[in-house]
Amino acid sequence: MSTATGAAASNSLSPTTSRRSSPSSRILTTPRGSLSCRLLSSSPSQSPLVPVSAMASPGAAGEAASRKKLLIFDAEKDLAASLAEHAAGLSEKFAAERSAFTVVLSGGSLIKALRKLAEPPYLEAVDWSRWHVFWADERVVPKDHADSNYKLAMDEFLSKVPVPANQVYAMNDALSVEGAADDYENCLKQLIKNGVIAVSPVTGFPKFDLMLLGMGPDGHIASLFPGHPIVNENQKLVTCVKDSPKPPPERITFTFPVINSSAHIALMVTGAGKAGAVHKALSGNESSSDLLPVEMVEPQDGEMTWFTDKPAMSMLSRI
Ligand SMILES: O=C1O[C@H](COP(=O)(O)O)[C@@H](O)[C@H](O)[C@H]1O
């Protein structure tokens, strides 16, 4: 693997995320595009561990780099602080621009990483009345079930912030898996009509302001699992899976056209258990037919930021 350091890495992070000590910047280029890359380290003497393959044409690399950024943190608490600033900054921007901030949550480890949003200064500073909260995926279980993504988010985050209850759009847990997916899609369509959810002029699909994603060790995002046919769904907004390889088996999930139409995608990936999928996603050695779901996250009308740590990046070469 050839390496190149990113002299052109302007790395225009949100001003609110720029307070870290001596971050180093790189352009990370993969066969499927490039990422502007920043190590955010509490011990700046340690170098980032990232691969850089041959640069694409400067124009293409620059354009892609402006849409994808990679942040690598030494400590989980720093990642959580940066994610909170990122979300709070976008909340302020969209509340001012369109009087609503549409936020999509996932389940899993992402929720713990959002905890700083429920603490000062964000707890008081964020205009929670503008928030409209959705789920990228939900397990088809009762809302009070231990596997429910809604329950996790309520217990760990939403119960601690004053988002109006009627702006939290949970799956209807009284329906079948197909019925729940259709019902959630209808809910989105109604909110598009009401002007709460924007529509991407590029794709024609709903354009959420902030899509917060996690990634499983197998490279799944939302409930879009590797090799499952629903990863190719290109008409529906919400679909379902009845045979999820990760329990519970029945789930509903946003489709890729919706995820990729977001204005901002924040992908939170931490821990050595995710290093294999991160390596595949960022080194890009496989043919396109073998893409992991995480590799299919490609913003069409917005930006994407990876929030990672060193263990997650540990299978990648040093630059
Ligand atoms: O099952 C799920 O897993 C993914 C990843 O979870 P993590 O705990 O490994 O971060 C999550 O993003 C998704 O929403 C959830 O339903």
TrEMBL record:
Biased composition (Low complexity): 12-33
Gene Ontology biological process terms, A to Z: carbohydrate metabolic process; pentose-phosphate shunt
Keyword terms of this UniProt record: Hydrolase
SUPFAM superfamilies assigned to the protein according to its UniProt record, in alphabetical order: NagB/RpiA/CoA transferase-like
Gene Ontology molecular function, alphabetical: 6-phosphogluconolactonase activity
Catalytic activity: 6-phospho-D-glucono-1,5-lactone + H2O = 6-phospho-D-gluconate + H(+)
Region Disordered: start-end pairs: 1-33
Leading EC class: hydrolase
Cellular component annotations (GO), alphabetically ordered: cytoplasm
Domain Glucosamine/galactosamine-6-phosphate isomerase: 76-306
Protein role: Hydrolysis of 6-phosphogluconolactone to 6-phosphogluconate.
Record-given protein name: Probable 6-phosphogluconolactonase
